[in-house]
Amino acid sequence: MSNQDKIWKYGDDINTDMLFPGKYTYTCSTPDEIKPHLLEDLDPSFATEVKSGDIIMAGKNFGCGSSREQPALGLRAVGIKAVIARSYARIFYRAAINQGLLLIECPEAVDAYIDGAEVNLDLTTGIIRIDDKEIEFPTLPAEILEIRDNGGLLPYTRKKLEASRK
Amino acid sequence: MGKTFAEKLLGKKSGSGSVVPGQIVTVRPDHLLMHDNAAAIIGKIEQELEKFGVVDPELPIIVLDHVVPAANEKTAANHKTVREFVDRHRLVNFYDAGEGICHQVVIEKGFALPGSIIVGSDSHTCSYGALGVFSTGIDRTEAAALLLTGETWLKVPQSIKISVRGKFQRGVSAKDLILTIIGDIKADGANYCSVEFHGDLQGLSIADRITIANMGVEMGAKNAVFPVDRIAQGYLDSLQIASGTYDILWADPDASYMLELEYDLGAIEPVVALPHTVDNVSPIDKVAGIKIDQCLLGTCTNGRLVDIEKAASLLKGRQVDRGVRLLVLPASRSILNEALRLGYIETLSRAGAIILPPGCGPCLGAHMGVLAPGEKCLSTANRNFKGRMGCKDAEIYLSSPETLAVSAIYGVITDPRKVM
Ligand code: SF4
């Protein structure tokens, strides 16, 4: 049980206002400013109890709503290992890639999870283990993996710019 | 097999020729839109900007609109940062506080050219599809990278075809249509897709099309687009944009779509989106009579001259109910000026409305018009998420301007057809 990943389970259509309230968008932009307000209107216990290595499991259309990158940036900053959802809204999906936050689109895993089940996510093999069930999850196209593997879009861009200068 | 609008445009603009859904292409967008969040965007890349500069001073369009005039020291400092950045890098397309909501400004100032690609660090960037633009929202980090490189990747989307015909009944408008569509296909029904409008579009003005395209993102769409027909060309003519300066490009008749839907405008009824999701759409008779505390007329969805005109004509000689605060938020200075000239603003103010400066303010709960716990607001905006207007214990209902104006008179949600 020791290496079991802690799961934060939420429903469908979790929007950006629930992940990070709009009223803070112009006053909070650094990880330290964002962290205390993460999921504030959805789950007040999240910001104080979340630990590095935790996983968020959710339904369809996770991250819908505004072009607001604080949720992706904040979830990465508190150490969320991955978000596993049935599907994602596209701006959030891009924001996560750009922040280097791992999103896994895997309805089978969401279906297989019942409260209290033991979940282990193995990133090297690309397998989610839920109790005894093993589910393979899809990976990203190579062009996009390159962005994430460089630590997100800005480090990737920096590298490209420096290279073009030489 | 024919191509959809998105396939054709992305194939052409990326230089890849024939592309298929799922393919990743690299494009150089014609413009990059930013608003108050430009301050945070440039904050990410200060050193790189110093070293490499902005890739093209004509690429960014920056409009200060979200918290204007500044609400506090922090937002004022953000605006100042943006102004200094604009000066330092000699950026050409800057609109300071008071000019209007970014999406309306982009269209009015003639940046939304058919056949172009515009990306913006705001989810409602999809509005310019009203004029045949491929436009879509991106996040701040991506906007930062674009300022430096001018290029980004896009996945060629699958497409949805929505065919319309006919004319709206009295008291019904584009907002009712788009809410009906979103209620039918749901908040993720068009996820990652290009939504393309076909059929007989004579019944939809440019203002109607902007309202519709604006809300594409509320069903998850990457972009929502209309063909450049006579109505669109007429609008571009009115902006003094010569027809030779843009690229008219549209889907082939035999293109293949993931989903096809049809709507008869004449059969659309007034609807309201109930708290707390945009796809929670109800016919108006089911919610008529709900007491409201505030009405917000305006935003990038319904803050255009026709919307203000409709409200003024319904409120002329009448009074807003004593229990209601009616906020009027014109989408731009030029709209405000016209509405002043035509007497609409005076009519609304005499009826008891509070006139706000052009901008976003209450729409995102950042500035003015914040709700109290337990209050209900009827709004012509595009989003009713919990907490959106600054208070998580308040409720937001979305409607057309017609429904809003009539409801403001009675203090309860009211079917506009009853009095029209
Ligand atoms: S009016 Fe509202 S929806 Fe439109 S850009 Fe401003 S905050 Fe966003």
SSE arrangement of chain A, N to C: EHHHEHEHEHEEEHH
Uncertain spans of chain A: none
Which overall shape of chain A is indicated by the principal axes computed on the Cα atoms? globular
Report the major sheet of chain B.
5 strands, parallel
CATH homologous superfamily placement of chain A: Aconitase, domain 4
Oligomeric state: heterodimer
- The number of domains of chain A is 1
User: Per DSSP, what share of the residues of chain B sits in E-state strands of 2 or more residues?
Assistant: 15-25%
**What would you call the structural class of chain A?**
alpha/beta
- The best one-word shape of chain B is globular
What Rg of chain A is obtained from the alpha carbons, in whole angstroms? 16 Å
* Ligands, ions, cofactors: iron/sulfur cluster
Would you tell me the overall average pLDDT of chain A?
A: 91
CATH architecture of chain A: Alpha-Beta Barrel
User: Would you tell me which CATH topology of chain A applies?
Assistant: Aconitase, domain 4
CATH architecture of the largest domain in chain B: 2-Layer Sandwich
CATH class of the largest domain in chain B: Alpha Beta
Content of β-strand of chain A: 15-25%
What Rg of chain B do the Cα atoms give?
A: 21 Å
Structural class by SSE content of chain B? alpha/beta
Terminal Cα span of chain B: 48 Å
Walk me through the topology.
The complex is a heterodimer of chains A (166) and B (420).
Chain A lengths: L6 E3 L6 H4 L11 H4 L11 H4 L5 E4 L11 H8 L4 E4 L4 H10 L3 E3 L1 H6 L6 E4 L4 E4 L2 E4 L5 H8 L3 H13 L1
Parallel strand pairs in A: 1-2, 2-3, 3-4
Antiparallel strand pairs in A: 5-6, 6-7
Helix pairs in contact in A: 4-5
Chain B lengths: L4 H10 L9 E4 L3 E4 L3 H6 L2 H7 L7 E4 L9 H16 L4 E3 L6 H7 L8 E4 L13 E4 L2 H10 L2 E4 L3 E7 L8 H12 L8 E6 L6 H9 L8 E3 L4 H9 L20 E6 L6 E3 L7 E3 H4 L6 E5 H4 L2 H11 L9 E5 L3 H9 L2 H7 L3 E2 L20 E4 L15 E4 L2 H10 L10
Parallel strand pairs in B: 2-3, 2-5, 3-4, 5-6, 8-9, 8-11, 9-10, 14-15, 14-17, 15-16, 17-18
Antiparallel strand pairs in B: 1-7, 12-13
Helix pairs in contact in B: 7-8, 12-14, 12-15
